[in-house]
Amino acid sequence: MAIRPSVVDNAKVMAKGQITIPKDVREKLHVNEGDRLTFVCQGDYAIVMNSAIYAMKMLQSEMKGQFETAGLRTEDDVNDLVSALRKENDKS
Fold it and tell me: Of 36, 38, 42, 56, whose CB neighbour count within 10 A is largest?
């Protein structure tokens, strides 16, 4: 069984390279007026993503394994670190 995308739509490129993103695509990407999009080109196709979500995915990828390296294995470890940093910040 082939996997089908949940939204497929088309847009016409205008003279200045502008397009109107179809409403169903905007809703699926959670983008509104003023939001930014990221275009990731691979071969002969492009992936369009909400820029905020793309940035978060890139950060997660870059940070993979860093928590374990820093000894942060549980949510309590993270909370303890945040508390310590806040106390240190309050002193300065």
Answer: 38
